[in-house]
Amino acid sequence: MSTLPATLPGGTWSLGDLTVTRFGYGAMQLAGPGVMGPPADRDGALAVLREAVGLGITHIDTSGAYGPRVTNQLIRQALHPYPEPLHIVTKVGANRDEQGGWPPARDPESVRRSVNENLKNLGLDVLDVVNLRLGNAQGPQPGSLAEPFETLAGLQQQGLIRHLGVSNATAEQVAEARAIAPIVCVQNMYNLAYRQDDKLIDLLAEEGIAYVPFFPLGGFSPLQSATLSTVAARVDATPMSVALAWLLRRSPNILLIAGTSSPAHLRENVAGAGLALSDEERAELDKIGDLARVRVKPRVEVDL
Ligand SMILES: NC(=O)c1ccc[n+]([C@@H]2O[C@H](COP(=O)([O-])OP(=O)(O)OC[C@H]3O[C@@H](n4cnc5c(N)ncnc54)[C@H](OP(=O)(O)O)[C@@H]3O)[C@@H](O)[C@H]2O)c1
Fold it and tell me: Maximum distance among all alpha carbons in the chain?
C-alpha cells in the first residue's frame, strides 16, 4: 500500500492571482455513463470529491455539460460552502443533445447562458476560471474564436469570471485569445502517448500560462504501452503513477486533472505522481510519444 505525501506532488501554480495545487482533480467521469445523467453511485461520487479536498487538492475541473449539470451539482452538494483555497475551473462552449453528443454552443447568447448556469449550479457569484472549449471530437479545429471569447471577456469585465482560458485550441487560437484578453490556462488533450502540443507547452511555460492536459491517463481508453509497463515494473509503481509523474516533470506549467470515480485510485494517483524518475527512465518514456507520433491519432471518444 502506498504512503501519501504530506504535501501534494508538484507543489502549487498560480492561475492569475489564484494559487492551486498542480495535482488537481477532473470531475467529468463522476456523471453517468457517456457523461450523461446521474452516477449509479451518488454517495460514491460525493465521497470522491470530499476525498480530493481532504487530500489537499485545491483545483477541480468541471463543465456544465457534464451530465449536463450533474457534475456541477455534485460538486456543490459535496463541497459547498467551498473551503477558501479551493478553486473550480469550468468550461463553456458545448451543449449536450439527446444522443449524448456535444454540439457546439459558442454564440454569445449560449455563452452567457452557460456562464449563468455554471454560477447557479455551482452556487457561486463569481467563477474562478472559465475555459472556452473549441474544436470538436476530432480535436482542435482552425477558425476564429473572437465572438465567443469577446463575450467571455465582457462577462469577466462585469465581474462574473475571474480568469479565462481556452480548451481544445490550436496555437493560433491561443494567440488570438491572448490578443483579446489575458488567459491563465490552456486545456488540451496530451499524455505520454499523445504529444501534439509539445511546442505549445514550452511556449506557454515561457509566458507563465498553465497547460492542463485532458485525458492525462488516456481518458476512456487508459494508456497501454509495453514501455510504460516495463518502466513501472522496474520502479515498483503502477503505469498510471508513472504516467502522472512523467507529466508533472515534463514542464513546471503542467497541472494534473486526472479523473477517477474511486477514492482508492485518487489516493494511489496522489502517492504515485511524486515518483522520482531518472533521466534514463524519462528518456525511455519519451520514446512512447515518438512512436505514437508516426501512428494514427488516437480516437477521442468525448469532446468536452
Ligand atoms: N476540455 C476538454 O475537452 C476535456 C475533454 C475530456 C476531459 N476533460 C477533463 O479532463 C479530466 C480528465 O479526463 P478523464 O477523466 O476523462 O481521463 P483520464 O484522467 O485520462 O482517465 C480517467 C480514467 O482513468 C481511470 N483511472 C484513474 N486513476 C486510475 C488508477 N490509479 N488506476 C486505474 N485506473 C485509473 C479512471 O477510472 P476509475 O474511475 O475506475 O478510477 C478513468 O476511467 C476530466 O475529468 C475533465 O475534467 C476535458
Answer: 53
